[in-house]
């Protein structure tokens, strides 16, 4: 009787799956984030900080501080700071603009009259493309937070989320790159800001350049993450199908 029960146990053991680790294979392959995704989040944080700081600070073009009689102090996308800028429309040179003002300041007398001088076509293009880049970074920040805090590979739209973040970052990086290239080509040319030989590109412009490059790097990392997660999902489905066949 004992021998028959012993044989029965051995017979039942022979029908068990020979590779039980196959059932756990999906937990190993389907990690929440790969190295590309983790690096993408880190690079995005620096890119977002640089883009936002450059967007808000008035040091895209600065004057040599050693020159006491300089007319320009510094300027950014939205704020211009002058030491003593004469009104270009006043032939008698009796009106001067001193201090920092919002470029669309409606309260300073005569400031709206020189707005065409302050905002030539290349400056408007720089504002436009860099504003698009900043909006793209804000939208991407929402997606990155969802990707980092909430989303997982078991969710249906996980790969779509990562791919969307990657493409939005790619568009933001391209817009930021266009903005800095336009400003680099025309921002310190002769005929715009006075004494252009004593002006140079400031730290805000440097941050804008670095931020545009980091944004493109972050976009590449997120698109790579989407590709890796797509491949892992396909592998998981194939392994799940094989496991069901073996189990059946």
UniProtKB/TrEMBL annotation:
InterPro entries attached here? PMP22/EMP/MP20/Claudin (IPR004031)
Which PANTHER family does the annotation name?
A: EG:80H7.2 PROTEIN, SINUOUS
Subcellular location field: Membrane
Major location (coarse): membrane
> Residue ranges under compositional bias (Basic and acidic residues)?
7-17
| Region Disordered, annotated ranges | 1-29
Task: Report biased composition (Basic residues) as residue ranges.
Answer: 18-29
- GO cellular component terms given for this protein: membrane; septate junction
How does the record classify its membrane topology?
Multi-pass membrane protein
Provide the protein name.
Sinuous
Q: Which organism is it from?
A: Drosophila madeirensis (Fruit fly)
Parts of the chain that traverse the membrane: 35-56, 128-152, 164-188, 200-223
Task: Give the highest taxon in the source lineage.
Answer: Eukaryota
Lineage here is: Eukaryota, Metazoa, Ecdysozoa, Arthropoda, Hexapoda
